[in-house]
Amino acid sequence: MLNGSIDGVFLDMYGTLTSGDRAAVERVCGRVVADAGLSISAGELSVMWGERFLNSLDFCNGEAFETLFDLEIRTLRETMANLNRDIDPVPYAEALRDYWQNPPLQDDARAFIASCPVPICIVSNADHEDVEAVVRQHALDVAGVVSSEEAKSYKPDHRIFEHALRKTGWRRDRVVHCGDSLHSDIGGAIAAGIRNVWLNRAHRIHDIGTHEPHHEAEDLHEFLRLLQVS
Predict the structure, then answer these.
(1) Is the pTM of this model over 0.85?
(2) Whole-number Å distance between alpha carbons of 124 and 128
(3) pLDDT digits (tens, 9 = 90+) for 158-198
(4) Cα separation, 190 vs 196, whole angstroms
(5) What integer pLDDT is reported at residue 137 of this predicted model?
(6) Domain residues for 219?
(7) Same domain for 96 and 110?
(8) How far is residue 6 from each of residues 42, 101, 171, 184, measured CA to CA in Å?
(9) 146 and 200 part of one domain
(10) Domain count, the chain
(11) Whole-angstrom Cα distance, residue 12 to residue 177?
């Protein structure tokens, strides 16, 4: 993957540039378990809720679009109904939104942004206000941001990538997308005909993906080396 052969990088946000959501989700699920008197663990609830949430993303594109915040509320309510509990999901979704707006950066994030030889556009399954808050709070020097809310499309739906191509003006065959989810990032990039790199960090909470990435990297340092190959 030659430096000179690409116009720019589409980069996932959560789990790739910032820390993954495992600790935040399990903290919230711990509160739910305690408040609702469930007999399962926070980890078990996080997987149940996470599977329902991820599966729902595939049906929330275009005219059926829901914001991430609304989707968290709906899928938590549905998950709890299956456990015979009736709770108000809004406070728990609000706690997660606090994380979405101020997650810690990965240790390699600033060095990658500073050294990346081409422009970076963040392409994130996120509400627009949340991803803009992350960019602002961490003063991330990126060329642009595309959120699922802006595109009315969640990865792996290809339309979020089509929106990003239009917004940046970059050419499809001269872009590479990097993200930590086989299902969302790699599956979506493949659907859009975009080269991709799976950032195979070790701490994802759950992944339902089975796609084969074009390249694999264990961290952003290795991704940077791929970009700089000559």
Answers:
(1) yes
(2) 9
(3) 999 999 999 999 999 999 999 999 989 999 999 999 999 99
(4) 8
(5) 95
(6) 3-20+104-227
(7) no
(8) 43, 30, 8, 22
(9) yes
(10) 2
(11) 8
